[in-house]
Amino acid sequence: MKRRKNSKKALSTALLFVALSGFAALPVQAANTVITDGNWTATSTVAATTQKTITVSDVMDTSSALKVTAYQVAKGVYKDGKLVSYTLCDSTNAPIADLTAPTAAEVTAIADNISSDSTTLTGIRMTKSGTSYTADVEAGLYIVIVEDSDTYVYNPAVVAVNITDANQIASSATGGTVDMTSYFNFPTQAYLKSSTSGFDKSITGSTHNGVNAESKKTDGDTIAFGDTVSFKLDRMTIPSYSDDYAEGSLKYEINDNLDPKAFSGLTGLAVKVGGDTVAADSTTYSVVFKDKDGLTVTDAAQAVSFSVSFKDSYIRSNAAKTVEITYSSVVQNTAGLNYSENKNTATLTYSNNPSDSTSYKTLTDHTYHYTFGIDADLDGEDGGKTTYELNKVTKSGEEFEETSDNRSKKSKYPLEGAVFTLYSDAAMTQAVGTATSDSNGHISFTGLDEGVYYLKETTAPSGYTLNDTDYQITIAATLNDEGIMTSYTMDIKSKDSETGAYSVTAGSASYTNTPVVAADGSVENTVVDTTVPAEIVNTNLASLPSTGGAGTFLFISIGAVGMTLFLGVIIAVNKKKKEDTDSEE
Predict the structure, then answer these.
(1) Whose CA, among 214, 269, 319, 429, lies 20 to 30 Å from 392?
(2) Alpha helix (H) ranges present in 405-482?
């Protein structure tokens, strides 16, 4: 009898303070009776007096489909209105050797049997209140299971209604609470009752001509051809998995896919777990690189995507540890211009359903990268608009008209063949590139970061004067919190010949966007543009008469006639003098 009293006391203490295990997303089968409304139906009149509220707290999942169910594993045995012992509800398919100390393995096995519909346990659906779930139940031990989770990994949890005084049942019943943020600690730490992994891809900076630069936003930046952009994948935590998950079934995999037109080559790939750098091998994780055609390559310098897949045993032994991945890639001269977003997509895929090894949760994040073009595609779409900020003309102040392809506008007096050089410094010593005006008079430069540039005509077309005016071009962009560009401007000023300052407005352009983001992260742009085109005028060289030309012959003819007349006058005067002399004689 003394032994029974000690056993009851131990059960009371254990069930009241047991640190409970986590949830598994397990489907509730038809054979497991679930009471969806009202209180628990007690097994006897005396048992009804033990009804108390059990609580599952800190259920952070926000899924509207989330269901929390408590299954009764042990119930009270009553005699003469008193609690005399506890008994298992299904000793065959839901056994616990010591009710005062349920083990993680026992809890896991019972949860598996509930999932496979091989128990006769009775369940009650718990009621949501904020981040807690409650149910009024009779004295006993309960295993709590969650299904239809959104992002969390839930393992089985244990909670109880205890009786501290068998003689005063009604007043001594206490309802237990399981904290979903703690470990299953009875008798040893085994697994978290609930856990989840976050996920974030961010831009940590870029390098341009060897000079470091900060990104404009962590999810978006402006870049130039040839820049090296650095990335970080973090906010990841390896979930805590119970043995509900079959050996070899766990998945924790990170994939990162760069825009193959905008980026090429991966350098400096590093993986950290729990703050320590971990190398890939047969016990940790594997890495697969793929090129722009989706073919597997061994050289990361040829890759535009990669996947990091952790091993099952490594996932289990590194629960609750953080994961961080860093690397860099180079911007290519085939990147889309202006509003073309050059989108990169990264995903994290992990197990969160022990009853279906092929069902995973996937988290996705994107980064956006913008590079600018003058007299270039506005949004990268075929048949879309082309900008016309710079215009080489033979006459200024004229109305602009549509080009033949209706993608842009041009002056009525365009001049082809003028060569310009764009510089990144006011001293015009650091050339960014050269461009020649086309048949529409447009002067195109591509792959520019936002910033200040300087323009000068370096070669005039044959038969035209060189325009020696210096120009300053300022590109400025605005990105929203998602890293998506909502506007950019180009201001073009010429240098004042007297002050030397770039203070004379030569042209301007403003492009305002209302972006619509699709589920895959792609952006549909609706751009309103206001352009005052800059007109760079060249004039014809003065045309002088050539030697032997008609003008020369005209001068010669006039001179000859004049000389003949002059000689005629001289001859006539001399002749008259001679006649006068002869007559005097």
Answers:
(1) 429
(2) none
